[in-house]
Amino acid sequence: LGNAKYQAVVQEMQNIANKNPTRVEMISIGTNSQGQEIKGLKIGNGPTSSLVVATHHGNEYGSTAVALGFAESLAANPIKNQTVYVIPVLNISGFDRKNRYESNLATMIDSNRDYPGPCVKGKTFKLKSTQALAQFLVDKNIVISATLHTYFPAVVYPWGISTQDLS
Fold it and tell me: At 104, is the pLDDT very low, low, confident or very high (cuts 50, 70, 90)?
């Protein structure tokens, strides 16, 4: 996926949905600041909703590949009693430019730092993509989530930082 554009990712999602029409549905969580539709897959139909979202950083295209592989595997073998949403690319503009940052039409922003939390001071949700994702979490009552990053080979929980300010 190193040279792929977002449209190729959308086509791959459509291929997964077409191969598994009774278990997989293409969805949209909204649009980004450029008006591009942020697409994903809904896999399964259980009462518990979970989410895997990748490519907050546009230059971490490996996370897109992992999300697509996960979606394909899950489509063949859905998790019982779960609905899993997979968003392979949140930062479409960065993905297409192979750039970490996303544009909100005024400036470039690290979308992974556009949420309330210990890493952020000041205004959050400056990007329409992060606003859309936050609203999607509420609308779908997401109770389990994971974000995929591929810059550094590590699994971190709950944050990939060290801080005394965890409030």
Answer: confident
For 122-164, write each residue's pLDDT tens digit. Answer: 787 888 899 999 999 999 999 999 888 887 666 565 555 555 5
Looking at residue 115, its amino acid is Y
The per-residue pLDDT for 154 is 61
Spatial contact of 84 and 74, defined as CB atoms under 8 Å apart: yes
Query: Cβ–Cβ contacts within 10 Å for residue 137, how many?
Result: 17
Q: State the residue for tokens 């609308």.
A: 139
* 53, HSE (Cβ side, Cα atoms, 13 Å): 25
Closest CA to 143 of 50, 45, 29, 40: 50
| pLDDT score, position 6 | 96
Identity of the residue numbered 114: D
Sign of the Cα torsion 111, 114, 117, 122 reads: positive
The total number of residues shown for the chain amounts to 167
What is 74-128 written as a DSSP string?
HHHSPPTTEEEEEES-S-HHHHHHT-S-EE-SSSEE-GGGSSSSTT--S----SH
